[in-house]
Specification:
81% of the residues lie in helices and 0% in strands. By secondary structure, the chain is mostly helical. Helix 3 (33-56) packs parallel to helix 5. The radius of gyration is 22 Å and the shape is elongated. The termini are far apart.
Length: 162
């Protein structure tokens, strides 16, 4: 019984500190840890390969692009957290994991973006064929310049819209 009292006192004293609140938040979101880490790694890979692809195309870095990357990451993390929280509050997390389904789609989008960036950086035939296969243009244009200009135009138009 004394052990329970000691543990209870430690919990109460820790709850009054900032570190205690941070630890409690991390413990509460423990099921999301793996999904968040994988998403963080993919976003970091996309960010780094995007910078390298822009450098190869002589596109200058700008605060607009950085702001877009950060807002994309915050939206992704927020979306996953909201769906996970919804599942927990409604009580459906035992039989369906919608946040993992959504995470799968986000991962797919990020992997495609990394592959497109790798295509721009390396111009290797493997990435050329893979990107054409993903984009559904394998039967259309065989010229690498067309595909490269398509990707760059899409990325530039997305940046200009924001």
């Amino acid at each position: 019984m004394d052990n329970f009292v000691k543990v209870g006192k430690h919990i109460i004293s820790a709850a009054g500190t900032v570190n205690g609140w941070i630890a409690a938040a991390f413990a509460y979101m423990a099921p999301l840890k793996g999904v968040f880490w994988l998403m963080f790694l993919l976003l970091a890979a996309d960010f780094i390969t995007g910078i390298a692809a822009s450098a190869k195309q002589h596109i200058p870095r700008s605060s607009k692009r950085l702001r877009r990357s950060l807002s994309k990451a915050l939206c992704y993390f927020g979306l996953l957290y909201l769906f996970w929280e919804f599942e927990c509050q409604v009580g459906i997390h035992d039989w369906i994991c919608t946040y993992k389904i959504i995470a799968g789609f986000i991962f797919l989008v990020e992997v495609i973006s990394v592959l497109e960036n790798m295509f721009i950086i390396t111009e290797h035939p493997f990435f050329t064929k893979l990107v054409k296969l993903i984009r559904g243009k394998a039967a259309q244009s065989e010229k690498m310049g067309d595909l490269l200009s398509d990707i760059m135009n899409e990325k530039q138009s997305k940046t200009d819209e924001k």
